[in-house]
UniProtKB/TrEMBL annotation:
Enzyme Commission identifier(s): 5.4.99.-
Organism: Neolewinella xylanilytica
Catalytic activity: uridine(2604) in 23S rRNA = pseudouridine(2604) in 23S rRNA; uridine(35) in tRNA(Tyr) = pseudouridine(35) in tRNA(Tyr)
Enzyme class: isomerase
SMART domains reported in the protein's UniProt record: S4
Family: Belongs to the pseudouridine synthase RsuA family.
Name of the protein this chain belongs to: Pseudouridine synthase
Domain of life: Bacteria
Length: 226
């Protein structure tokens, strides 16, 4: 029985399938000493290496919910002194599922299961993500209506979404999209600047009272079909 190379690499817990594809394109992966190409499959007994170092054994699955502080970057790049992996200093190799802006706070998942990345992030799944946002000045009902109805950014229009007033400058917003800096760009288009942005829910997992900078395990959660 064989599996696709990108799925094999993701199953080892070192990256997502998307990242594995980039490694294949860069010529960094080999199968039995031969440089791999897209479409290659891995058979039982094949020796797969990244930059000449063998990879293989599937580790125990790790799923974490983390309360990201402001100032931490959602990257595994060790050259970034504020990278999320070094901040957590978790004993196993893990990586973030998606991202939050460096200035933003709140819930983010980390895992060593590359398949979860596709499951959570694929747009067609329309998983909800909930945020609490504070802007730089009081807004009116028209602002809420326009945010909820869709705003033109990045050459497209944002999908209709749920928006709820929480105060003169604070509101709750639930997105099923993941456009780059989406909420900040939406607010900017309407003439407002985001002062604080906190993600409090992804799907049915909530941040709850998890302290800033702390994490909790979600063992078995994704095995439940999410």
């Amino acid at each position: 029985m064989s599996v696709s190379l990108n799925k094999f690499v993701a199953a080892t817990g070192i990256c997502s399938r998307r990242e594995a594809d980039r490694w294949i394109e860069a010529g960094r992966l080999t199968i039995n000493g031969q440089i791999a190409t897209k479409g290659n499959r891995v058979e039982t007994g094949d020796r797969v290496a990244l930059d000449g170092k063998l990879i293989g054994a599937q580790p125990d699955r790790v799923y974490l919910a983390f309360h990201k502080p402001a100032g931490i970057t959602c990257t595994t790049d060790a050259r970034d002194p504020d990278n999320i992996v070094d901040f957590l200093n978790y004993p196993d190799r893990i990586f973030p599922v998606g991202r939050l802006d460096k200035a933003s706070t709140g819930l983010i998942f980390l895992t060593n299961d590359g398949d979860v990345v596709n499951e959570v992030l694929r747009a067609e799944h329309e998983h909800e993500k909930e945020y609490i946002v504070t802007v730089d000045r009081p807004y009116d009902d028209r602002f809420l209506e326009r945010m909820a109805g869709g705003v033109p950014i990045l050459g497209t229009r944002t999908n209709p979404c749920q928006v709820e007033r929480l105060g003169k400058r604070r509101f709750r917003i639930v997105l099923t999209q993941g456009l780059n800096r989406q909420i900040r760009r939406m607010c900017k288009y309407l003439g407002y600047r985001v002062m604080t942005l906190k993600r409090v829910r992804i799907m049915d997992i909530t941040l709850g009272d998890l302290p800033v900078g702390a994490y909790r395990e979600l063992e078995g959660f994704f095995a439940g079909g999410h």
